[in-house]
UniProtKB/TrEMBL annotation:
Protein name as it appears in the record: Phosphoribosyl-ATP pyrophosphatase
Pfam families from the UniProt entry: PRA-PH
Region (Disordered): 1-29
InterPro entries noted in UniProt: HisE, PRib-ATP_PPHydrolase-like
Record's compositionally biased regions (Basic residues): 16-29
Principal subcellular localisation of the protein: cytoplasm
EC number assigned by the record: 3.6.1.31
Native source species: Sorlinia euscelidii
Catalytic activity: 1-(5-phospho-beta-D-ribosyl)-ATP + H2O = 1-(5-phospho-beta-D-ribosyl)-5'-AMP + diphosphate + H(+)
Subcellular location(s) of the protein: Cytoplasm
Enzyme class, spelled out: hydrolase
């Protein structure tokens, strides 16, 4: 059967073929978009390093003595060491709850909270992140088991 649609005349099988072609074209576009998005995610992931912790420390440091109504860090710092330590403890407990509950997304979020509050604690104590990085670097050369044994403790 011939179908007439305005200027062009096409057979039914021709229409079916063109619809199938259109659908597979859409699928190709969708899968190409998924590939592009995956590439973007991969690249964004590659760009993210622990340097974000140094930047966060700089930001929190810059909030010391500023208006607590404008900055959460300034508010926390104005409340003193005990309060900061308490907040850090609360965030750590929330983190461990998510670790046990098994929600990876929540664990990521709670881990970020823990790191933020730990950095506020460092700022209050006048500790530079480099001091922690140095200590971690020192430990790189030693296995945890060997270190424990060197203290005369048996591994659990
Ligand atoms: N990473 C964080 C971050 N993580 C968590 N939080 C805040 O921590 C708070 C935790 O809420 P809670 O209710 O547990 O704490 P709270 O309001 O002190 O509650 P109470 O103790 O009063 O009960 C929330 O307000 C979060 O927004 C953070 N606030 C700031 N940062 C970083 O610090 C930078 C500077 O922030 P400001 O200091 O606010 O400018 C920001 O750009 C961020 O990069």
């Amino acid at each position: 059967m011939a179908l007439s649609s305005g200027k062009s005349t096409r057979t039914a099988s021709g229409v079916k073929k063109s619809r199938t072609k259109k659908a597979s074209g859409k699928k190709k576009v969708a899968s190409a978009l998924l590939e592009i998005e995956k590439g973007q995610r991969d690249r964004a992931g590659d760009d993210i390093t622990a340097a974000v912790l140094d930047r966060l420390h700089e930001t929190v440091l810059s909030r010391r003595g500023t208006d607590p109504s404008l900055s959460h860090s300034a508010r926390l710092l104005s409340r003193g060491r005990k309060k900061i330590a308490q907040k850090f403890g609360e965030e750590a407990v929330e983190c461990l709850i998510e670790a046990v509950a098994g929600s990876a997304n929540e664990l990521v979020s709670e881990s970020a909270d823990v790191l933020y509050h730990l950095i506020v604690l460092w700022v209050d104590a006048g500790i530079a992140p480099q001091e922690i990085w140095r200590e971690l670097q020192r430990r790189e050369a030693m296995s945890g088991i060997a270190e424990k044994a060197s203290r005369g403790e048996k591994p659990a």
